[in-house]
Structures
1.
Amino acid sequence: MLSQRRLFGTNGIRGLVNKELTPELAIAIGSAIGTYLHCGDLLVGYDARTSSPMLAKAVVSGLNATGCSVLFAGMAPTPALQYAVKKHRLDGGVIITASHNPPEYNGIKVLWNDGIEIAREQEIEVENIFFDKKFRYVEWDKIGSVKDLTGIIEEYVEAIKGHVDVAKIASKHYHVVIDAANSVAALAVPKLLRELGCRVTTINANIDGTFPARPPEPRPENLGDLASTVKAMGADLGVAFDGDADRSIFVDEKGEIHWGDKTFALVEKHFLLQNPGEKIVSPISSSTLVKDIADAYCGEIVWTKVGSVIVSHTMKKLGAKLGGEENGGIFYGPHQPVRDGAMATALILGIMAETGKKLSSLLAGLPKYFIEKGTVECPEQLKEKVLERLIEQTRGLNINTIDGVKIWFEDKSSILVRPSGTEPLYRLYAEAKTRRKALRLVQDFILKLKRIINSLKV
Ligand code: MG
């Protein structure tokens, strides 16, 4: 962070607390955001991190100094705060969260008046104000006020219930185990599920910003406790959230953990059964599974660059009602076009209730792919040239170059080759109908990339 006049990364501002992201910096960032948003009423809330209240107060200072009034919502899931901005017709918002990053990190997200994070062009304007120190401080009698805003979690839960068949879900008396990552999912999801008539068991549901139980990223290797609890208790479903509860990863009744592509494809299938012809928005890094489902159920897939904010903005621009990412982000437009872990959980329960099937059998009915990944070191200054050369070599193939290059082959295998945004690396993601083929694709393209890089070095 703070390199080359850049504050924002792919998901807001992130940094190590009190090293990169200090209270002084947070005041200046708050002042830049307030100057950019030009007064109005802004929502401020935060996740469960130890540093969140401290940074939130600093940001509020900056906002007030530039004449913005703040409605202070306190600790809440990111999607609940995003919903509150829309529901209360506010002019925007600021969320203090580092999502899935380790506990020593924190971050700042800026929301527009629709609850969606601001677009890159708007971030650049905030960055320019910040680096040029063009803060629009107001006179003493124009300083913004701070009021508490209560009840946003109840409103959020109520809104989600409006998008599913509550009576049908409740009639099934599902037993659901929630792994809240010791963070804000615990404030909303158990309440939602109880109101959906579920029996709820929680693990890691005590709020603790040190994340003592597991890292806040819901990767399969962090979810062993959830999987074994679901199995041991004979529960119907398990669900794990990331640190700010916008992503959810599901565990079936057998204790098997499923990565986000699969649960998104399931939601997509049932959405398209009821809404044929709709557009489905997904980053190019998603599985071909997502396209298979769109093709089979009369949907139209729209690939985007990688990044949840890009998916949200694309959905808004196209009026699309569904989006999804492989990491467990599901965007349900009729509720709000942003990732929402609690909404995703309600949708999955709705599908189980509607079909009367267990999650394992619902997912077993989807096309299967094997995924293999790889990396190749590549100096920063060569990245662009390497991509150009690689694209030249793929002439005649079925490719998409929206973010790196993705190549689809006739046997349904594919590979995505993307320069890392943060490290001197190229990342490769291959997918195929057999593990051997996926592995071979990765190996072939590692060789191809190395050859190109070496030829450019001489
Ligand atoms: Mg998150």
2.
Amino acid sequence: MTTPRHRHRRTDSRRMVAVVGGFAAAAIAVTLAIPAQAAGSTLQAAAKETGRYFGTAIAASRLNDGTYSGIANREFNMITAENEMKMDATEPNQNQFNYSSGDQIVNWARNNGKQVRGHALAWHSQQPGWMQNMSGTSLRNAMLNHVTQVATHYKGKIYAWDVVNEAFADGSSGARRDSNLQRTGNDWIEAAFRAARAADPGAKLCYNDYNTDNWSHAKTQGVYNMVRDFKSRGVPIDCVGFQAHFNSGNPVPSNYDTTLRNFANLGVDVQITELDIEGSGSSQAQQYQGVVQACLSVARCTGITVWGVRDSDSWRASGTPLLFDGSGNKKQAYTSVLNQLNSGGTPVPGETTGNPTQNPTGNPTSNPTTPPPTGGGSCTASYSEGQKWNDRFNGNVTIRANGNISSWTATVQLQNPQLISAVWGAQASWPAQRTMVVTGGALGSGQSTSFGFTVNHGGNWTWPSISCSAS
Ligand code: XIL
């Protein structure tokens, strides 16, 4: 196995390198050296192993319930105030700010070593009465003042802010929702983001919405187009939150990973921000597993937050949509989430809609360096460059069989701080955040197959190292 450390030259897309030869099946365990995954015994520990957080919404009024705060403290490492940082809570009278409940939650989180998602700076709902009746320039200025004041108060304490919440309409229009804020002018959202950035440059700034999970829905496309436009014009946006409130009429879509990946490919983080799934038993557990799986398959899906602790704490308590029952017992859904997190990553479908992939220029070459072992074929993995952008590049790997093989395993090792945001033509799993393992089936001698991926390089253009083993 070789570990090439070639540097990209941005102007030369024709360079390529051939890597690595074959292994006897017996040698695989030794030579692949995949880091063992330590099984986390709590949601936060398991998520942390994947480089992600696992959060919950907290109601300040419940914090002195020992069962509630005990579970919250044990299982979660990211905290969202369920209502306490919304506009009506923080600015009940114009220019009179009240941070007492919000501070209570932020202090509890920080005292227990947890991070905080800020929710939400600007929203058509849960506005204080004085704001509901405003319009025009005075409303625009009041909104911007609110964003500035609240983000300044919490400056340095917030991992990510939901700067704007739920600004798109449901249904087939893909358009903005009508609201008093929208009527101040279409640029109200970007104005809010700019004010938030100025007030707290250290916080990630998110757009957050619901019914944006299914890639084929008009609302999803509307939000996607807005984020793409913001990125192209330098509006400061860092992340997109997917509320993920599911029930039988609005189930977890099968293309969820596609949605998350396509947003991530715009150059933003994605987060599941308010997850709850009505139901019970194995069907609920399965849907939860699907959401976790989708997040784990997207490198820029940085964390998952469930919207409450126990079913009885939920805003939709009758739908029993959470991971703990009313007595605080772990539900089947809890176990499926924990197990999925502990699997450390999941297969990625081989194709992504809207993926900016282009075929790499030039044909990959292969150069086996290890003689075929007796008793079975070997494989060669060769890497070739694909398209490059400022923030990411595509790579293509061709696997060639030397002798007949019944299966192959390729390991793609990234360099810090690189992250893979898309994979196509492959079944992949992640034993570690920067280690992707791709497996494939039988190939006859001389046959080849290929897969590709997008690396968000974070400034490090080093090629990933690829190795292959066959049996
Ligand atoms: C909900 C809270 O959970 C309830 O307690 C409150 O009565 C209404 O708001 N989308 C959001 C959240 O962004 O703020 C909402 O929270 C749920 C839907």
